Every structure is written in structure tokens, then in C-alpha cells.
């Protein structure tokens, strides 16, 4: 049973973090930040580089050093996907990581934008925007991440 319904704003913030080169979460309000940390969609390191526990990460916000970003997790990346995107990433995938032919082009493009799929040419070399879609290593992590969220697209 899903534990959380994400708003469109929450999904948008998670998608922004998904495309950031280092996975940094954009600035969000305290309520949304608490949700992301509580649901383990984002984390923050302490000054020594160790991952802070959820409550400690939130309490750490009161410190003078607010420059350390919150970083999206594989579960956070998965929470940003709708049901069709999750299905493509988890069920419509061949043993070699190739997406099934029936996966719609918009789904392939969104997964590629989120760095979960890459397009390759006939020789297996990356071919951005053209070629055959393959799940990336990050896509595999996201496919295997625990998922307990209802995406707004899934609510009737």
C-alpha cells in the first residue's frame, strides 16, 4: 500500500534533482523537504561526508553551514516516475537491458532525460536521442529501489 501521494510540485522537484549532474535537490520548502527526507527520497551528508539520519539532516539545517545540498536517492528518482515509466524500466526490459519495442517514444525520451535510459547505435556506442534505448546502471538502481508512492498521474 503506498504511503505517500506526491503533488505535481513534489514530482517536479524530484525530476529537477534527477537531471542535476550531482543529483542536488533544488531549494524546497520545509514541509516538502521533511517529506523527502522522511520517505528517503533525499539525504544530506554531514561535514565529514557521512550520510545524516533523517531527523539529524533536518536538524542540521539550523547550522550556520547551509551550503551542503540534499541529494536525491534512487527511491526519490523512482518516485518521480509515473506508472508507465516504472513499467518500462522494470518489466519491459530485455536481459541485455534493452527496452522493449512497444515502449512509447515519449516514455523513452523522458527516461533518457532522467538519465535512466541511454540510446545506443548498432555498435553499442552512445547515440543521444537516436538509436536503441537501453537501461543505464542508474536506471537499474532505480528499477530495484523500493517504491511506496502514488504519482499524481496514477490518481483517478
Structure, explained:
There is one protein chain. By secondary structure, this protein is α+β, with helices and mostly antiparallel strands. The protein has helices at 8-19, 30-38, 54-59, 74-79, 83-90, 105-113, 137-144; strands spanning 4-5, 42-44, 70-72, 117-120, 132-135, 149-150. α5 packs across α6 (105-113). It is elongated. The protein starts with a strand and ends in a 6-residue tail after the last strand.
Question: How are the SSEs ordered, and which strands pair?
Answer:
Blueprint: E1 4-5, H1 8-19, H2 30-38, E2 42-44, H3 54-59, E3 70-72, H4 74-79, H5 83-90, H6 105-113, E4 117-120, E5 132-135, H7 137-144, E6 149-150
Parallel strand pairs: 1-6
Antiparallel strand pairs: 2-3, 4-5
Helix pairs in contact: 5-6
Task: Give structural attributes.
single chain, 156 residues, two-stranded parallel sheet, alpha+beta, 7 helices
The percentage helix is 25-40%
In DSSP terms (H or I, runs of 4 or more residues), the helix count works out at: 7
State the strand order across the main sheet: 1-6
Largest sheet features: 2 strands, parallel
| Total strands | 6
Low-pLDDT ranges: none
Beta-strand content estimate:
5-15%
Task: Compute the CA-based radius of gyration.
Answer: 17 Å
Care to give the gist of this entry?
This protein has about 160 residues and is an alpha+beta fold. Helices cover about 35% and strands about 10% of the residues.
